[in-house]
Amino acid sequence: MPVGKPSRRAAILTVAGQTFLRLGYADASMDRIAAEVGGSKSTLYRYFPSKAALFAAYVEEVGALACAALAAVDIEGNEPEAVLEDTARAYLDLILAPSALAMTRLVMAETGRFPEVGRIFYERGIQRTEQRIAAILQCLAERGGAPDWKYLALPGAAAHFRALCESGPHEGCVWGLRDAVSREEVARTARRAVVHFLRGWSGQVPRATESREANISG
User: Fold this and answer.
1) Is 65 helix (H, G, I), strand (E, B) or coil?
2) Which of 35, 118, 125, 126 stands 20 to 30 A from 110 (CA)?
3) 67 and 24 in one domain?
4) CA dist 187 to 65, 141, 205, Å?
5) Do residues 122 and 95 both lie within one domain?
6) Full-prediction pTM beyond 0.90?
């Protein structure tokens, strides 16, 4: 990690993020970012060796709080369905955050010209988040209980779970069809994702989940 003050690094990331989102990846040059930060380009390069490295750090910064929320999901102290709902809400909080939505739109617009933008976003954002979800599913599978829970540890389960969470109001927000999602709608979307995930992935619906399904439209 580059030597430097954490506060200075944080300030650079804040300005760089604003610049990326305002100008796009192509036009957000290191010269421009250095000028807006208020320092020399050599100082900027001391913290981040390239624009790609700076962009990757910003992607990690955007997802840091949500990844912490996923890591803090209480797996042992709750029933499996409740754990999955907590996981879904944490992920929804990430992808519905204004900064994450803006980043998603930026990546969608720039990846065709700059494939490294999509790669960074996938590796530093989507893939890391999916790995945290997979770790939660693995823990639930190892807890035992109903036989169908073992399917949660199969490859692809976390990607399926993530896609079900994204299939709700997130799409409308990404495309600018709506501005905000209420906490109630986030909770309903999380419940719906869990119900369909368990039914589709294991081929069975645990009894506890059947009762939750009745409340999805409530």
Assistant:
1) helix
2) 35
3) no
4) 19, 23, 19
5) yes
6) no
Place of tokens 């709080």: 65
Q: What is the largest CA-CA distance in the chain?
A: 62
> For the chain, what is the mean pLDDT?
87
Contacts of 198 (CB under 8 A, 6+ apart): 81, 84, 148, 204, 205, 206, 209
Strands (E) across 81-154 are located at: none
Structural domains in the chain (count) = 2
The angle that helices 51-71 and 80-95 make with each other, rounded to 10 degrees, is: 150
Domain around 164: 62-213
Contact indicator for 129, 91 with CB cutoff of 8 Å:
yes
Question: Tokens at residue 168, please?
Answer: 């709700």
Q: What CATH number corresponds to the domain at position 145?
A: 1.10.357.10
* Residue in this structure with the two tokens 């490859």, named with its chain if needed: 155
* Ramachandran category for residue 24: left, alpha or beta (phi over 0 → left; psi -120 to 50 → alpha): left
Please check whether residue 57 lies inside any domain of the structure: no
The pLDDT tens digits for 125-155 are 899 999 999 999 999 998 866 557 888 888 9
Let me know whether 44 and 69 are in one domain.
no
Is residue 133 within 8 Å of residue 110, measured between CB atoms? no
- Residue 108 CA to residue 131 CA, distance in Å, equals 22
Task: State both tokens at 75.
Answer: 């797996």
